[in-house]
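hey so u asked for the seq, here:
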Amino acid sequence: MTGSPQLLSTGFALASAACWGASDFSGGYASKRSDAFLVTMLAHASGFLLMTALAVVAGAPFPNRSGELWALAAGALGGTALAVFYRTLATGSMGITAPLAAVLAAGIPTAFAIITEGIPGTLPITGFVLAVAGIWLMSRPDAVVGRPEGLFWAVLAGFGFAGFFICINQTADNSAVWSAAHSRLASLTLVGAIVLAQRGPKTLHFTDATVAIFAGCLDSTGTLLFIRADQTGRLDAAVVLSSLYPAITVLLARLILKEHFTRWKALGILAALAAVPMIALQ
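ran it, structure tokens below
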């Protein structure tokens, strides 16, 4: 695919990455003092309300039954993957969980797209490899302290995130905003059930709740933009480019929290920057 359609898709995908990266930073910040699942539930609730309101105001056509079910499946898989991801981080296995889950989330849908849509060409493939390497480097923590038992859960989380991308792709040309709303409804239901099943006290500070609402609006907007990227271009390019969101998270952490900027993360960002034109100009 060449010309303006793929460039338009690239724009949507990069905007999606910006929203998801900022959302991850905001949600992570809010989860430092407050319960992570409460923060996540509130974020999903705000995202669902935002997408539903946009769909109603815009008069977007309601999706057909197939599109509705695929969007719900996408949200359920994404919500499950997020729950698994949090569980794995809680075991102290962050060293392997974060980068492996991120790479699988990008790699599996890319392979799926290559099988179903054909090989995009040498230059985009090179861009995919560079981007995946960048995703790994940006996602890996500064101190690798992963334990072997984290491997299974990391793979499970990666497959869940990959399932989200593939299922959203199956919504085809249905309304992007309604698809985003349905996916958020499913993930909200799942995370809400997890919160209700948890025992013990749960803390949610007012400031963190406000940040969580903001993060949820960013996250659902990122989902909407990803769907548009998928609808206007190739799935593999949309997935890989939108999966560069750790670059935004890392940059925000450096600019706002003054966190140390390691050479590996810097190398990952450079690899991501080099990959973008290779993928965009296919």
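Residues 4-30 form the longest helix (27 residues). The mean pLDDT is 88.
lmk if thats what u needed
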